[in-house]
Design a protein that fits this description.
This protein has about 775 residues and is α+β, with helices and mostly antiparallel strands. The protein has helices at about 5-15, 15-30, 40-45, 50-60, 70-90, 130-135, 160-170, 215, 255-265, 310-315, 355-370, 375-380, 385-395, 410-420, 440-450, 505-515, 560-610, 615-630, 690-695, 715, 735-745, and strands spanning about 95-100, 115-120, 175-180, 185-195, 200-210, 240-245, 270-275, 325, 330, 455-460, 460-465, 465-475, 490-495, 495-500, 535-540, 655, 745-750, 755-760.
């Protein structure tokens, strides 16, 4: 500050209040061109309420509508999630059809987006007429936010936000058709959301028998399906939602195709049909897990998948659960005909509530139950609180079981909250969860991933913040998966795929922190493993802690990440056992190949030395070689152990698909194992003392270096531990018979100078 400025401040400090006011008025007169300053009254006039729909309309990126391609995917995702939830609650096997129509097929090639009409039809229970405006035209309205029960939707934002985005980008209202009863016509409603009031404005309300829409059955993409597409028999009731929006359809990662593929894996009880638009904005490679096939369309209800060899005949079967990619039409068939277990709503756990929540719960109970006691409140509004536990809580804060909730003071409520944290209570019940299950996980992975080895595991339920959750994992290895790329991690939360924000998700961090080197896989430091591997992680919970309203990543809670790592380690142990067994089988197969390569020459050489029949020697040595390398012919179960007469499909937790890569090579077809004796002679009796004395008296000849030194026939008759390296000798049942044979045919010895075999008389030897 300058010297002049300091003097002015000092002058103002010494003036009286009246003089200071006069100076302020003089300053305002000098600053005539400046705007007048705001006052408290003028600022109060500008303040007004903000609608939640108005807020999200300006911040639509928070809901997943931050770019055209992602907006198209989010619209399909929210509609499909609602359809799956409705069908499961009504006990109906879901049959969902997604139709994407390109409304601007003649756009220039340089266009980065286009206008699409998204239509999702389901065979669920439908929606009653008076709830249509609230469900589709109002944000933060739903029945799933306050209940502690596993479901896909949580906040009541998704489908309403999709309609709001379509209205903003195209100005077109949502088209809803719903039929709650098969004997009554469907309701046809067109509505648009008023973002100022967060309410729907209905522009059309009729009744119609055109459900599902006849217009969809006349699309050129569905001509191959015929009359079975959207038939009235398969859709007696249900809901159809159509939204026009500005978007971008493109295949590959993060596309509608990938989302529906992963949804079919996590929901094998659902049949999903995708009708692609006639033109794409760009062409990417399909996601590597899609098992597309060209051929006939599978039946609407496909039986559960049975693991089989990946042969062309099996792939072409109409009952195969493999995805049918017909170009403009993709059908993800139903792999199991069983719905997930029905879930039950539970009360909050005492360890999961916070002090402010507890105070509000006391007020709500007092308002609903006039004269209600604290003893009753603890048992009715909390889970795992028995009558004895409720009495102990009342005694701990200095009240009785008859004390009313209205008489509880804030200090007593705070003390009760501390007692909740210190009490040893059982974990909350888990009947509120509906995990996928090991069987369904394997059926889904087998349907969607080309691999050789499949393993799955499901952990026991655990608790975070008083809320139960359960972790399930599955892995697929080998087969057609790329061997040089990093493992692909597919993440699910309450059976919904998570396609974005992978690095911020607790699932991805758990995969990177697991030591996959222990299971014979390569893994860079701090990264996912490298190899032909697909890793699937599913979290089932009554309230999934997402990082944002777009529900794209799971928050990194320590309890959740620990359970994920333990489940991954369980699958990793199964994979490691399988890989080690397979490597040993390969080594033994190569070892057998070496044996079989030289058995013929060894048999001929022994025949030349001893006169034993060559074919008998060859068969005996081949049998011993196969016996020593029998592990090369084994089949492995889920623990990597040998399977005798069982089918690996009956094992829980693992499926092994026999392919050319997983089978060890064999030199020739396997012959029946008869286990013949390597030596076709009877055991020789122990020599007498007289024979041993005469043998000692014979002069011993020292063989030349490198000469083949045979041993006596009697000694060779003794079983050797290395039978494959032994040689049979033709002889009788005793020592005298062996000596008679040796006189009939003289023994030979290799002459190192001439390289020929010469007869020797230094007694019987091994050859």
């Amino acid at each position: 500050m300058s010297k002049k400025g300091r003097s002015m401040d000092a002058t103002e400090a010494l003036t009286s209040p009246a003089e200071a006011e006069a100076l302020e008025q003089a300053r305002q007169r000098l600053n005539k061109k400046g705007a007048p300053r705001a006052t408290a009254e003028s600022m109060a006039l500008k303040q007004r309420d903000i609608s939640v729909s108005e807020f999200f309309a300006k911040n639509r990126h928070l809901l997943g509508f931050d770019n055209p391609r992602k907006a198209l995917l989010t619209t399909v995702k929210e509609a499909v999630d609602n359809s799956l939830d409705a069908c499961e609650e009504a006990g109906i096997l879901p049959d969902i059809t997604v139709v994407i129509e390109d409304l601007e097929p003649g756009r220039p090639a340089s266009a980065k987006q286009s206008r699409y009409r998204i239509t999702v039809v389901d065979n669920g229970p439908g929606i009653v007429r008076k709830q249509v405006e609230n469900v589709f035209g109002r944000l933060l309205f739903g029945s799933k936010f306050h209940r502690l029960k596993m479901s896909r939707g949580q906040q009541g934002i998704g489908i309403s936000a999709a309609g709001m985005y379509g209205l903003i980008t195209t100005g077109k209202p949502m088209l809803i058709q719903t039929r709650p009863s098969a004997q009554k016509p469907a309701h046809h409603i067109e509505l648009a959301m008023n973002t100022k009031t967060n309410r729907a404005e209905v522009t059309a309300d009729d009744e119609t028998d055109d459900f599902p829409l006849r217009r969809l059955r006349e699309l050129p993409q569905v001509r191959e399906v015929g009359d079975s597409f959207l038939s009235h028999r398969d859709y007696p009731t249900g809901t159809s939602v159509s939204i026009e929006l500005e978007g971008k359809y493109q295949r590959g990662r993060g596309s509608v195709d990938e989302f529906l593929e992963l949804t079919a894996i996590a929901n094998p009880h659902a049949r999903i049909t995708l009708v692609r638009p006639t033109r794409e904005t760009g062409d990417d490679e399909d996601a590597p897990t899609i098992k597309g096939k060209k051929g006939s369309v599978p039946a609407p209800s496909t039986p559960a998948a049975a693991p089989a060899e990946a042969t062309p005949a099996a792939t072409a079967a109409t009952t195969s659960p493999t995805t049918s990619d017909l170009g403009p039409l993709v059908i993800f068939p139903r792999a199991v005909n069983e719905l997930p277990p029905e879930t039950k709503e539970i009360q909050p756990h005492p360890r999961g509530v916070e002090l402010g929540t507890l105070l509000q719960m006391l007020k709500d109970f007092e308002a609903s139950e006039k004269g209600g006691t604290l003893y009753t409140f603890l048992q009715e509004r909390f889970s795992r609180v028995s009558s004895q536990t409720a009495s102990s809580f009342c005694s701990a804060i200095g009240v009785t079981s008859r004390t009313k909730v209205a008489d509880i003071e804030p200090p007593q409520a705070e003390k009760l909250y501390k007692e909740f944290q210190d009490a040893k209570l059982p974990p909350p019940p888990t009947d509120c969860l509906a995990p996928i299950g090991v069987r369904q996980l394997l059926a889904g992975m087998l349907k969607g991933v080309r691999a050789e080895f499949y393993a799955a595991s499901s952990r026991e339920a655990n608790v975070y913040r008083g809320r139960p959750f359960l972790i399930e994992t599955a892995i697929a290895f080998g087969g057609d998966l790329p061997a040089d790329d990093s493992a692909r991690v597919i993440r699910f939360a309450n059976r919904v795929p998570l396609l974005f924000q992978q690095s911020a998700c607790s699932s991805f961090k758990a995969v990177a922190e697991t030591n996959w080197r222990n299971y014979d896989l390569q893994q860079p430091r701090g990264a996912v493993p490298v190899g032909p591997l697909v890793i699937m992680i599913h979290m089932a919970s009554v309230w999934v802690p997402f990082t944002s309203e777009s529900k794209e990543a799971i928050a990194d809670y320590d309890e959740i990440r620990k359970e994920m790592k333990l489940a991954l380690m369980e699958c990793g142990r199964k994979l490691g056992t399988y890989l080690r067994k397979r490597a040993k089988m390969r080594r033994e197969s190569e070892r057998r190949d070496v044996f079989e390569r030289y058995i013929g020459e060894i048999s001929q050489a022994i025949n030349a030395l001893t006169g034993v029949e060559t074919k008998k020697l060859y068969d005996a040595l081949l049998t011993q070689a196969r016996k020593r390398t029998a592990i090369a012919d084994l089949q492995l179960d889920e623990d990597g152990k040998a399977v005798k007469d069982e089918d690996p499909a009956d094992s829980e937790g693992v499926i092994i698909v026999e392919t050319a890569a997983s089978q060890p090579a064999q030199a020739e077809p396997r012959r029946p194992e008869q286990e013949p004796s390597l030596l076709d002679v009877e055991p020789v009796k122990r020599a007498s003392a007289k024979a041993r004395a005469s043998r000692k008296a014979e002069p011993k000849s020292s063989p030349k270096p490198g000469a083949v030194t045979p041993s006596k026939t009697a000694r060779s008759a003794k079983p050797q531990p290395q039978a494959a390296a032994s040689a049979p000798a033709k002889g009788g049942s005793g020592t005298s018979q062996g000596q008679a044979d040796s006189k009939a045919k003289p023994k030979l010895r290799l002459n190192l100078k001439t390289g020929k075999l010469e007869p020797v008389d230094d007694g019987p030897k091994l050859f």
